[in-house]
Amino acid sequence: MLALRCHDTGDLTTGLTVEEIPDPVPGPGQVLVEVQAASVEFVDTLIARGGYQVALPVPFTPGFNAAGVVREVGPGVTRFGVGDRVHGMVPGAFAERALAGEGQLRPTPAGLSADLACLTGATYRTAYDALVSTARLRPGEDLVILGASGAVGSAAITIGKALGARVVACASTAAKLEFCRALGADELVEYTRPDLKQTLKDVCGGSADVVLDLVGGDFSEPALRAVGYGGRFVVVGFAAGSIPRVPLNLVLLKGSTITGYEIGDFERHHPEQARANRDELEAMFVDGRVKPPITGRYPLRDAAAAMRLVAGRDKYGMTILEVAAPGPLA
């Protein structure tokens, strides 16, 4: 089978090649998935560049989120059979076939295409959990998103609008902001401008209710200062490359909260809530309340180019690999 292989972490140009490797064989509790679509995430590029906190021994096949059809099951698997449509956490997803533990997969609902199903594994799941369970976003509230044009940020725009929030999208260029406008953002703020705090206060009518921070760096503190009394500041990532230090007296004076979200820890500590969130997110995809902006579609042979695109600063929306032609929806 064909797979993208990483032979040298640190170089997305020479370290990645698409090549033939043997088909994996499912062991006890494992499912062999015929991959139809896989999402290309920023974390995939970090791992391939050796910049993630967990290092994988080379060579390895990147990718963690995929959708497809069960090709074979290992001993002890009871939830899935050959031919079932599935999606979820699929390590080594950038390949024609990949192994997943039975518990890492979910049945793909009727009406949910493979290219949308693969996005529920990380990007949209992160945005939904962070807004619904961590920020407790309510209809009519002002939601500020730092880094709104990226994958999780653009997911947060569409989910925030579906939940009835007033969305303030913050990005670094006019072109990125126009992309956010097309997704439905109510207000646009170029966060590199000198007085971010006052600008956010002005567009929010005095103060923000919720800030979703995907950027970190020098932008976190001004955004925190724009939060009103009882507001919620949710830390998700540090795309700017540096972890900010903020004066905690701001939290004391505002009666606000700073909370964090990390997808693995959330699922481990709140498994029932995580499952309920995914059920609702998938329903929002199926009925059209949320429409992901898939801005990049690549065949498996161009997976390295897709990785380089996602690693760059000019990335908008979602990027997927179309690995195999999907069959008709169930």
Provide structural commentary.
With 330 residues, the chain is an alpha/beta fold. The chain has two domains: 2-108 and 293-322, Medium-chain alcohol dehydrogenases, catalytic domain (Quinone Oxidoreductase, Chain A, domain 1, Alpha-Beta Complex), CATH 3.90.180.10; 123-265, 3-Layer(aba) Sandwich (Rossmann fold). The protein is built from eleven helices and 15 strands. The protein has helices spanning 42-48, 114-117, 123-134, 151-162, 174-183, 196-203, 220-225, 249-254, 263-269, 271-287, 303-311, and strands at residues 2-6, 16-20, 30-39, 65-73, 85-89, 97-101, 105-107, 142-146, 166-171, 187-190, 208-213, 227-235, 257-260, 294-299, 318-322. The strands form three sheets. Strands 3, 4, 5, 6, 7, 14 and 15 form a seven-stranded mixed β-sheet that branches. Strand 12 (227-235), helix 8 and strand 13 (257-260) form a beta-alpha-beta unit. Helix 1 packs across helix 11 (303-311) and helix 9 (263-269) crosses helix 10. The two termini are 26 Å apart.
Labels describing this entry:
7-stranded mixed beta sheet, 26% strand, single chain, alpha/beta, 6-stranded parallel beta sheet, Rossmann fold, 330 residues, 15 strands, Quinone Oxidoreductase, Chain A, domain 1, 30% helix, 2 domains
